[in-house]
Design goal:
By secondary structure, this protein is α/β, with parallel strands linked by helices. It has 9 helices and 10 strands. The two termini are 32 Å apart. Bound molecules: adenosine-5'-diphosphate and magnesium ion.
């Protein structure tokens, strides 16, 4: 579904040079729930921005379903982007618009969606994320978890094959986190949507991910199936992440 080869991203400006990602290679298969874990500043959000080509990689290649994103422009790049739903950290909702208007927003640019088709799709998406009754509410009237659900519904509006989520639970309390992870699992299993979750929380990867990539200071420390990586960690940073998990971790007793 997504192949990242030798991705490097260097930010330059004000005489500063920050290597945010260096020679990162990953392969995400259709149907995976793929976790990218690392400490703050590791380059996780940069990876997501490069994947959507909001940020042009300095070097390296990203293939989305076999298509090289860097070779696309204009309408073809927009079409490729439509195949990826993005849930940004901090939700990025339009505050002056209702829940329904936020979810409808990506459909305004779509062909074949007249007014009736848009309302039907919005109703279906709000039902899916458990917000059937809140269509007319404004974001300010919602809890953090509910705002995150609106952002997920909006990201899914154009039926993307992959959903990219940046720290989807970092602002949520443990119970809301659990419900959010159940929703993402449901979306993966019921709709067959491939999911990439960026997180700094080991418990999130443990709870829902099939695969994980550990990144540290812009480099890939290791990657693979979750039981392999967490069962036999090969890098110091993975061991550090595992060691930091409280002994009474949240999965216990569930
Ligand atoms: N637009 C930018 N310009 C310059 N440096 C940036 C920019 N965005 C991120 N960085 C730097 O790149 C590194 C990785 O950042 P980021 O991808 O946001 O990490 P993470 O999401 O893992 O916390 C950090 O050192 C950060 O300061
Ligand atoms: Mg980040």
């Amino acid at each position: 579904m997504i192949t990242i080869s030798h991705l490097t991203k260097i930010y330059e400006g004000d005489g500063q040079r920050v290597t945010a990602l260096e020679d990162v290679s990953l392969h995400i298969e259709k149907g995976d729930v793929y976790g990218v874990i690392g400490m703050s500043g590791a380059g996780k959000s940069t990876l997501l921005r490069c994947l959507t080509h909001l940020e042009r990689p300095t070097s390296g290649e990203i293939l989305l379903s076999g298509q090289n994103l860097a070779a696309l422009s204009g309408a073809r790049l927009r079409a490729a982007r439509r195949g990826m739903g993005v849930v940004f950290q901090g939700y990025n909702l339009l505050m002056q618009k209702t829940v329904a208007e936020n979810v409808a927003f990506p459909l305004k640019l779509e062909k074949g969606y007249d007014k009736a088709a848009v309302s039907a799709r919005v109703a279906e998406l709000l039902e899916l994320v458990g917000l059937g009754g809140r269509a007319r509410a404004y974001p300010a009237q919602l809890s953090g978890g509910q705002k995150q659900r609106v952002a997920i519904a909006r990201a899914l509006a154009t039926s993307p094959g992959i959903l990219l989520c940046d720290e989807p639970t970092s602002a949520l309390d443990p119970l809301t986190t659990k419900a959010m992870l159940a929703l993402l699992t449901n979306i993966n299993q019921k709709l067959g949507v491939t999911i990439l979750i960026i997180t700094h929380e080991l418990s999130v990867v443990r709870a829902v991910c099939t695969h994980v990539a550990v990144i540290s200071e812009g480099r890939l420390a290791e990657s693979g199936a979750v039981p392999d990586v967490f069962g036999r960690p090969q890098s110091d940073v993975t061991r550090l992440l595992l060691g930091r998990e409280p002994v009474d971790g949240s999965e216990k007793g569930e």
